[in-house]
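Known limitations

Structure tokens in this collection are predictions and should be treated as such. Users comparing against experimental data should check residue numbering before alignment. To illustrate the layout, the record for Glucose-methanol-choline oxidoreductase N-terminal domain-containing protein is reproduced below. The input appears on top and the generated tokens appear beneath it.
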Amino acid sequence: MEYFAFTGKTMGGSSAINYMVYIRGSRRDYDSWAELGNHGWSYREVLPYFMKSENNQDIESHNKHYHGIGGPMNVERFPYIDINTMMLVEAFKEKGLPITDLNAENQLGTDIVQSTSKDGRRESVNVAYIRPIRHKRPNIDVVSEAHVTKVLIDPTTKTAYGVTYVKNGKIYTARARKEVIVSAGAINSPKLLMLSGVGPRHHLESLNIPVIADLDVGSNLQDHVTTDALVIGLSNKTSTMVNGPQLVSELYNYFRQEPKKNGPLAVSGTLSGTAFIKSPYTYEDAPDLQFHFDGRNVKEFYSDPTTYLASNVFPLSFYDGLATRPLLLSPKSRGTILLNHTDPVYGPPLIYSGFFTERIDVDVLIAGMKFVLGLEETEAFKESGASFIKIPVEACSSYVWGTDEYFYCLLTHYTSTIYHPVGTCKMGPHSDKSAVIDPRLRVYGVRNLRVVDASIMPLIVRDDAENQKVKASK
Ligand SMILES: Cc1cc2nc3c(=O)[nH]c(=O)nc-3n(C[C@H](O)[C@H](O)[C@H](O)COP(=O)(O)OP(=O)(O)OC[C@H]3O[C@@H](n4cnc5c(N)ncnc54)[C@H](O)[C@@H]3O)c2cc1C
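Generated tokens:
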């Protein structure tokens, strides 16, 4: 299955291009990591670090059990609330979901999300952490537009001592006095380790890469898989579509506002409205489904059923339809990342997503789709004139819209993700033979080498170990 690796190749990485939704995961996620033998990672132990990192500007800051003020990363609700975000949250409330602080004790419920932004502007990790100290602290030297090609590891002592990188066509070496810390993300950290001789023996040998440590690097890939093909059409009452001159005027307004931004360009459209529920397939007191709504331009959908899948060509806040995405929070399927045989160093790695290799994953998402269809019956939807577009999409036109078979077809033919890959340099105790790093993020079998990014997650956040054992496809 094709998988587009969408990652931020810039300062701040993917936090510079993401949707800015600030959701940490549930208590169960971190407790599950600890139960797998990762000491120090239980919810009780990680919560102080979340609180320390946060400068929460919202009502949540009053909850001193879960939120912090004064940390480097600003958290707020966007200053502008999109009309359809309100409709969605109201509709979920009518369906019985409570308004919940999605970063507190219990994620089950709905709300307008908190975001990693400040005054309606993105707050990437570069803005929050690097910019305030860059050029100020003597112990940080940022080399931008540099591509690291290898971690240097002494094959005799198995000790990492630096990296090689390419900048402007020239090769350089940076040497480490203490440790090398890799933080290239869940797609590129495994690639870099494998290029450096840390990875599955048979794969490295097939590429003539000398093996330093035979580890399960690249396996255990997980993501929040979904589909983009379940679409709500909006009436003129709540469509926010603009024409060219209106868009120019909005842009002008946005750039004119200082210091606080406001208006539709200071929000990520309906991505601000979300909900977490439990499907009938989970026994835990934590959600296994989340809903995302992404603005779409679907005006022509009646004449051509394929066009309502068209991506939004306008900024996120200007749309006349909503891609309704049930997100699989606890995938059981696993994928793999391998080096590209043609050009392992500069070519993109091979990504085998493994999506839906476990049937239960499809079943949970179908349950999510059935739940979300119920929003149509709410007063909030009826008052707005919002309803699902019930014209079958092209690849699924042989099925009856709204049936399990139709939804199965949507999921397998119009599969998408919201780009949360994790797990490819799995953290685990020594007894876990599939672990790449220990609970202090040190690579097994190599001295002075750590991995510190989303690749270390043993289970994607909102997942749990016990659930993995007991669930069975119904
Ligand atoms: C479109 C999109 C929307 C998302 N929305 C959200 C959201 O709303 N909320 C949320 O919490 N998460 C969201 N995510 C996911 C979130 O952004 C990522 O999980 C997170 O940024 C991962 O952090 P990371 O440090 O592991 O990797 P990254 O952020 O990917 O950082 C890796 C860094 O390493 C650099 N790098 C890689 N290889 C090399 C190399 N060889 N040499 C030098 N540098 C290298 C990259 O350029 C990048 O700067 C989204 C992601 C995307 C792409």
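For this record: The longest helix spans residues 359-373. The chain has eleven helices and 21 strands. Please report discrepancies through the issue tracker.
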